[in-house]
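Our consortium's second objective concerns turning raw sequence data into structural hypotheses that experimental partners can test. To show how far this objective has progressed, the report includes one record in full. It was chosen at random from the queue rather than selected for favorable results. The single chain below, 475 residues long, was entered without modification.
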Amino acid sequence: MPEILRPTNPVPGYDNVSGRQPINPQDPNTNIRNVVDPTRVTRGDQRSDQQQAGDASVSHRVRYESNFLTFLQRMANAPDSASAMLRLLQGQGLQVSSGITAGLAEELKAFLDMLQMDEAQLAKFLQNQLMSGQRFGGALFGALRNAFQSSQSEMFRTEILQFLRQYSDWSSTEHLESRMLRTLYDMTKSLPSHWANQLTDMAAKMENGIAAHDRQGNLELLRGQVFPLISDYVRRTHDHGMARGLLSMLTLDIVRYENGAENGLIQAFRHLGSYNIFKADLASLSDGDIMRLLRDTEFLKASRSDNFTQRFIELAQRSLQGEGGSAAQDIFRSLMSSILINESVYMPLQHLMLPFQWEDKAVFSEMWVDPDAEHSGGREAPAPRLLIKMDIEGVGPFDLIIDSAAGGKTSLQVSCPQQVAAFSGEVSRDLTDILTRNGLTPGDVRVSAMKRPMNISDAFPNLFQEVKNGVDVKV
């Protein structure tokens, strides 16, 4: 009897056990012909996934299985976030009559009112966005960074990285709790009522635990009740769909939630203190003093006062869930896509979004900063570079590169609309005066008409070299 589970067609004579002979492909009497040349097989879209790294004729082809190159493709095809944000600031199609619910329309109006800024408010908003994007900024992490770079001990460097992971997970506690709770409620939507009711009760218990800051109780609830419940559901129903997928996501968040416990963070910090990284003696600090030290960072202060980010996320979530109508969904889908690409593990730049209303005009600005520029290339003196893109309602797009050259001079390269470039001499003099008033030494200041928008890779030509040679992982 033929083996029906074999993935290929049975070979003639295969089932004749007593007379079976090994097949020799080189035997001219073997009646087997390979009618397909595997080197000539192509996909319908003319794409080939075969790796031919040693073939110079195909070395230029894109490796489609590479996550890094996929990221580059997505970045190149990213939607225009500037036009999407300007539509949001101008309120185009964002009325109740266009499909937005009344409650969301009111929140959108309050959000846009918050972006009406004068010069002082804009400076504070920019500073807060910068600080909230630098989790490892300040004197404490500066000392750790210097110790990591100067140490030759792999064990010591590993311990620093472990502490940073614990600090990152601890400082993300509110985010992790919110996401785990949302995952539980999402699970209830995919379960039959008998299971959903039990999970809803557990989610309510976790809400109480979060309010009481009971991390250990929440972990016991998740490990001792939620996991057995969903595992039992999957085992009985063989449902390998949404519930099982969400459980996998929940597992990753639980690991980070447990790793961010205060006791472990304090122990890791005390252990680093024995290496004489810090100038002051930390042995006399109590546990409470250490936690106050870790809480007193510019990042956490800025994060707690960052109303813009929190309100933007809430509006995006509600709009994408259907409350915003097609216009709002399109706007927030484009913006979230841009944000996720710029926050990818492959993007080594700090990315900032700065939308605001200046007098009667809507303005959207994006900024990319290389936080490691001062440590690159073996240079002792800092040489940071910034790329700023700005789109002003009724005027057009601007590209600005700020570069700190050798000798402490600051150079500016501005690409602007044609009608602004007609006054390039005046604009150049004004920019030079601004640099001087802020204590900077002006270098080369150039203003020219924009021929095409500047790409990130144009502003940072060596941007992805280190990432390209790194480990290609999917996160």
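The partners drew two points from this record. The chain has three domains: 79-131+307-350, 139-304, 370-462. Confidence is low (pLDDT under 50) at residues 1-65, 375-382, 471-475. Both points have been shared with the crystallography group to help prioritize constructs.
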